[in-house]
Specification:
about 450 residues, disordered C terminus, binds uridine-5'-diphosphate-glucuronic acid
Length: about 450
């Protein structure tokens, strides 16, 4: 099939590559000429394991092309996926300008029967607005341009896996014709066992928000349990293990830490809150999810302060800056929120990350960054584990201890073994663990 993908961000580019890999003829479009040029030369604009290799394979196969020429890409396409950004406005509402622009572009250049598949995460009701634009712009194509909702469920860092072996494909459509086109587009995945769930449009749109909001809710629940564990002397790792063994609850997304970040959960929680409000349903539970998430950052800052007393002129090493391992994405990364808070109090903050340092520094110029964890740790009064990279998990802890001014580790991801850390002489403070709230009596190592 001839497919076009508008927007070559995380979702768009992964869609281009995976759709080409199952045999479709795909053209990716983006307004950013420099970006398109680099992608067309096999260079992905962000880090995603396996993406660049697959991009080069598909470019070489001739099934995948990239262009800034929307007309050339859209003319003759059977499906045009819209996968442009929907960043939050100050009110929390999703900003849908890019979606509207993309819809207008598709309407302008579509030549015949074409399904417009909205893949960006959008508030319920967006497809109706897209349809309105299309009907206004192209009354001549009435009946042969259809909008469907086709939300994407891929995780950054595992995007290629999730796109190639999706656990579900959701298509919200209003005509049998559009459903049939989407069945053909996704047949190679369904043949391999993926579940295709067909719904109406509003259901597909809402289901995507529901998934992300519920996952964020699980994380915040675990983080609330961590706070209570710290106050009561319980161990949150065991509390969530007990919870996770119940098949009705399940173990996934119950890891307490410094809170969720990334380009999806923080934005989607706010967007769903606003959507519900607009529809006349008050959903304050979502505010609580967000509040508990912010509290997870507060908890770390409080622990660092408790350990160091005055923060001015102290050096704190942040181990990991990306919002999670496997990505160089720092959007809404809790590590950056922690960095800002510490820098505001006069702390010298040095961040280590294997790949996200440059992005973090562009965001916070006062943050020093390094790709050598031992540089960050050298002379630090405290180290905070922010991202559970393997590189952080496998640090030589004796070397870490000897390099630090004070051997204090505030572990925001419960990455290390508490008994070992104590045996090595660290003052070790993990999330939701016994003793976490105890005063930190520290003697300098040097
Ligand atoms: C999330 C969803 O998991 C995907 O299913 C969805 O498609 C995607 O959003 C999207 O809407 O595009 P992603 O943002 O890549 O994917 O990252 P996650 O793996 O979900 O992690 C989000 C955050 O939660 C990270 O900061 C992670 O550290 C944190 N987290 C996750 C926890 O703190 N505890 C956990 O138990 C799990």
């Amino acid at each position: 099939m001839r497919l076009a993908v508008v927007g070559t961000g995380h979702v768009g580019l992964v869609t281009c590559v995976t759709m080409a890999s199952v045999g479709h003829d795909v053209v990716g479009i983006d307004a950013d000429a420099i970006k398109i040029d680099s992608i067309a030369n096999g260079i992905a604009p962000f880090f995603e394991p396996g993406l660049e290799e697959a991009l080069n394979t598909e470019l070489a196969s001739g099934r995948l092309r990239f262009t800034t020429d929307a007309r050339a890409a859209i003319e003759g396409a059977e499906v045009v996926f819209i996968s442009v950004g929907t960043p939050p406005r100050a009110t929390g509402e999703a900003n849908l300008i890019a979606v509207e622009d993309a819809a207008r572009t598709v309407a302008r250049y579509a030549t015949g029967p074409c399904v417009i598949a909205e893949k960006s995460t959008v508030p319920t009701g967006t497809a109706r607005m897209i349809r309105r634009i299309i009907t206004r712009e192209r009354p001549d194509l009435a009946g042969s341009l259809e909008v469907v909702s086709n939300p994407e469920f891929l995780r950054e860092g595992l995007a290629m896996h999730d796109a190639l072996q999706p656990d579900r494909i959701v298509v919200g459509a209003e005509s049998e014709w559009a459903r049939e086109v989407m069945r053909r587009a996704y047949r190679p995945f369904v043949v391999q066992g993926a579940d295709l769930i067909e719904t109406d449009i509003a259901t597909a749109e809402l289901a995507k928000h529901a998934c992300n909001a519920f996952l964020a809710l699980k994380i915040s629940f675990a983080n609330a349990m961590a706070r209570i564990s710290e106050l009561s002397g319980a161990n949150v790792e065991l509390v969530t293990e007990v919870m996770g063994k119940d098949p009705r609850i399940g173990p996934a997304f119950l890891k307490a830490g410094i809170g969720y970040g990334g380009s999806c959960f923080p934005k989607d929680i706010q967007a769903l809150r606003r959507v519900a409000e607009t529809l006349g349903y008050d959903f304050p539970l979502l505010d609580e999810v967000q509040r508990i998430n912010d509290e997870a950052v507060d908890a770390v800052v409080t622990k660092v302060k408790a350990a160091l007393w005055n923060l001015e002129d102290k050096k704190v090493a942040l181990l990991g800056l990306a919002f999670k391992p496997g990505t160089d994405d720092i959007r809404f990364a809790p590590a950056l929120a922690i960095a800002r808070r510490l820098i505001d109090e006069g702390t010298h903050v040095v961040g280590y990350d294997p790949i996200a340092g440059a992005h973090a520094q562009a965001e916070i110029p006062q943050l020093a960054v390094t790709t050598d964890p031992y540089d960050a740790i050298d002379g630090a009064h405290c180290a905070v584990v922010c991202t559970e990279w393997d590189e952080v998990a496998t640090l030589d802890l004796e070397r870490v201890r000897d390099l630090m001014q004070y051997p204090i580790v505030v572990d925001g991801r419960n990455l290390y073994d508490a008994i070992r850390m104590q045996a090595l002489g660290f003052t070790y403070d993990a999330v939701g663990m016994p003793g976490a709230a105890e005063a930190l009596e520290v003697t300098p190592t040097a």
